[in-house]
Design a protein that fits this description.
Layout lengths: L12 H9 L5 H34 L6 H11 L2 H9 L7 H21 L6 H9 L8 E2 L4 E2 L12 E3 L11 E3 L3 E2 L5 E2 L3 E6 L4 E5 L4 E4 L7 E4 L3 E3 L5 E3 L12 E6 L2 E6 L4 E4 L7 E4 L3 E4 L2 E4 L15 E6 L2 E6 L3 E4 L2 E4 L12
Antiparallel strand pairs: 1-2, 3-4, 5-6, 7-8, 9-10, 11-12, 13-14, 15-16, 17-18, 19-20, 21-22
The structure holds calcium ion (CA).
């Protein structure tokens, strides 16, 4: 079951909003949208009514089963009190359309409650479709509830959505699911092929990833190859190895993928590379040297020749380089490492 008044027709919510708010628009333009909205409002009301029935049933059938209680309850069951309780909760106070509809047709709801609900237990059908005529039976559309394209039994042959289905709006045309196309959603879209087709049913199945269009499931059944694929000697669509043409930049390596390729950055230790990682460098970047087929960081601080020459200076090795920093207790001043001036902070009471 659909929940609450939010259950609007999926199509054109913006158009609905525009038509509801911009009343200066030509009325003809919005009539269809207004009719869709009216049905969705009515459906929301019936949903809330049924919710109200369930809520009041729970509330009042909790106790024992003495004769007195049964009599009182059965009286409550069809009482005006219960109806009023339910009607009060049919619309959120901010829902103008809903409150309007309930106010306009409250007498009908009362008549159904007191006289007709035994004979017509389906409130949606009685109220929304047959009495105030804002909805249509499923599979039909428009002011006169005509059958959707493909018939009211299985609109759009079960492969799409009928415009205005179940409302007094729309034009009954089909919006097909992505696998299907055509006025009746019987034909297969590009990238799909037919696995079943008879008078009433059509089933389309996805082609192989290599095909743009196809007649079967394998890459040999392609009519046209998708971009990034090419026909081989056996007339099968196979991946193009774009990397063979070296399409990437100097600091990148090429990664071939099915139907495509990508350029990825080389490791920081490389100048040029053939793949991911420091073992795929063409040449090692400065600060790195080849060790066990890998470009490995040079520890400049451990070289026989000292690299940090100044007095009171330490060497710190970094990836691909090194830094010279002043030793602990020394600070840099005018390019030299000088003893730090220790400042004594005034001691406060808090500490
Ligand atoms: Ca490729």
């Amino acid at each position: 079951m659909r929940s609450g008044p939010a259950a609007r027709p999926a199509r054109a919510p913006l158009a609905v909003a525009l038509c509801v708010t911009l009343l200066m628009l030509p009325p003809g333009l919005c009539a269809g949208e207004r009719r869709r909205l009216a049905c969705s409002t009515c459906r929301g009301i019936v949903d809330r009514f049924n919710q109200g029935l369930a809520d009041t049933a729970k509330k009042n059938f909790g106790g024992g089963n003495t004769a007195w209680e049964e009599k009182t309850l059965s009286k409550y069951e069809s009482s005006e009190i219960r109806l009023v309780e339910i009607i009060e909760k049919l619309c959120d106070s901010s829902n103008f359309e809903c409150n309007n509809m309930v106010e306009e047709y409250e007498e009908h709801i009362e008549k159904w409650w007191f006289k007709l609900k035994k004979k017509y237990p389906d409130l949606f059908k009685w109220f929304c479709i047959e009495t105030i005529e804002v909805c249509c039976p499923a599979g039909t559309y428009g002011p006169d509830c005509l059958a959707c394209h493909g018939g009211s039994e299985r609109p759009c042959h079960g492969n799409g959505h009928c415009d205005g289905d179940g409302t007094r709006g729309g034009d009954g045309t089909c919006s097909c699911n992505k696998e299907y196309t055509g006025d009746f959603c019987l034909d297969c879209s590009n990238g799909y092929y037919s696995t079943l087709r008879n008078e009433t049913h059509s089933v389309c199945t996805a082609c192989h990833a290599a095909c743009k269009t196809c007649t079967g499931s394998s890459n040999k059944d392609c009519q046209d190859c998708k971009e990034g694929w090419i026909k081989n000697e056996e007339a099968a669509c196979v991946d193009i190895d774009e990397c063979a043409a070296s399409p990437c930049k100097d600091h990148q390596y090429c990664l071939n993928t099915d139907g495509s390729f990508s350029c990825k950055a080389c490791d920081a230790s490389c100048i040029g590379c053939t793949g991911e990682g420091s073992d795929k460098c063409k040449i090692c970047a400065s600060g790195y040297t080849k060790e066990d087929e890998r470009c490995t960081d040079i520890d400049e601080c451990n070289l026989p020749e000292k690299v940090c020459m100044k007095e009171n200076q330490d060497c710190v090795n970094t990836s691909g380089s090194y830094k010279c920093v002043c030793s602990e207790g020394f600070e840099e001043k005018d390019g030299a490492c000088l003893q730090m001036q220790v400042k004594y902070l005034p001691v406060t009471d808090d500490e």
